[in-house]
Amino acid sequence: MLDVRKLRLLRELAHRETIAAVAQALSYTPSAVSQQLTALEREAGVRLLERSGRRVTLTPAAMNLVAHAETILAVLEQAAAELAGTRTELTGTLRIGAFPTAVRTILSPALVALSSNYPRLELMVTELDPVLAPDALRAESLDVALVQDYDYVPVAPDAALDTEPLLEETVYLAALSEDPLMTHAESAWIASTPGTLCHRMTVRACEASGFTPRIRHHADDFGTVLALVAAGQGVALVPELGALACPEDITLTPLKTQRRTQLAYRRGTGNHPGVLAARAALHEAVARRFSTQTEIARSSGHPGGFTRVAPP
Q: Where is the signal peptide, in residue numbers (predicted)?
């Protein structure tokens, strides 16, 4: 019989690619991970890993086993969720991960509702870039997370996760004048840290307009980005949630580019009472924000770009 814990290590190796990364994510030592994977090979009776020096790659048999492991782990998560659903009161810990602008605008009101409705539910929030959220969900350091993709930066589905649409936003060119994106080929640019989705979106949107942006400043907080734009330090691409407190002297020019935010959770956990409660609270928070922002846009003439996505 194959050991589920060893299958999980193999699944993580398929995602993280190195034994050291698996060990760090799951709080093992690298030698312990290697020993467990060697034991899994013995249990399977076939070679699962190809070793070349310090590098390890998965064999075709291992990749097939990883696909089965995803199904097995999802069924176990579903069983645990159904057991949790038999309890009379929602208790325990719910760990939620979100990007900074969502923490301020969407997650905060959702937390108020969750705390009020479920006083014995312990809420834990982690602020992180969406690109890191899938790994955190698979490692079980998060239960629910907000993940993203942009036009020009598609994100491949993760077999370990289920997702559902939450919000779509327009991306704006933030500048001191109302000029098309293509006119800023020689401008200084402000972008997020390299490796983030926001940074890749900025680079690829500019490349689609025929130039590579000359990035002078890096900032991950959109409030800081807008302050730099207002100070004449460059131009930037900012999604709707990041532009809610935009300085008056900045012009926001809407682009065709969209940012899409989804709720993500491990396969099989969607009906866990805690995850269900978080899903409902976050959709309600978006509905309230959408309604309020639409009213503000109508009264101020600001081009509101929210599209609320109804829960499934």
A: none
205, 189 Cβ separation under 8 angstroms: no
pLDDT of residue 104: 87
The residue written with tokens 């997370």 in the block is 145
Question: What backbone phi and psi angles, to 5 degrees, belong to 61?
Answer: -65, -40
Q: Which residue has the higher pLDDT, 294 or 39?
A: 39
Query: In the chain, what percentage of residues exceed pLDDT 90?
Result: 54
Tracing tokens 């829960």 back to the chain, one arrives at 311
Average pLDDT over residues 54-71: 88
Q: What is the pLDDT of residue 262?
A: 94
Listed in sequence order, the residues at least 6 apart from 96 whose beta carbon sits closer than 8 Å to its beta carbon are 107, 123, 124, 125, 126, 142, 143, 144, 145, 278
Domains defined along the chain, listed by start: 4-84 (1.10.10.10), 92-164+260-301 (3.40.190.10), 170-258 (3.40.190.10)
Per DSSP, the residues of the chain read ---HHHHHHHHHHHHH-SHHHHHHHHT--HHHHHHHHHHHHHHHTS--EEEETTEEEE-HHHHHHHHHHHHHHHHHHHHHHHHHTTSSS--EEEEEEE-HHHIIIIIHHHHHHHHHH-TTEEEEEEE--GGGHHHHHHTTS-SEEEEEEETTB-----TTEEEEEEEEEEEEEEESS---GGGGTTSEEEE--TTSHHHHHHHHHHHHTTS--EEEEE-S-HHHHHHHHHTTS-BEEEEGGGGTT--TT-EEEEEEEEEEEEEEEETT-TTSHHHHHHHHHHHHHHHHHHHHHHHHHHHH------EE----
Confirm whether pTM is higher than 0.90. Answer: no
pLDDT beyond 90 at 294: no
In whole angstroms, give the CA distance from residue 128 to residue 98. 6
Assess whether pLDDT exceeds 50 at residue 46.
yes
Q: Which residues pair with 252 in a beta bridge?
A: 174
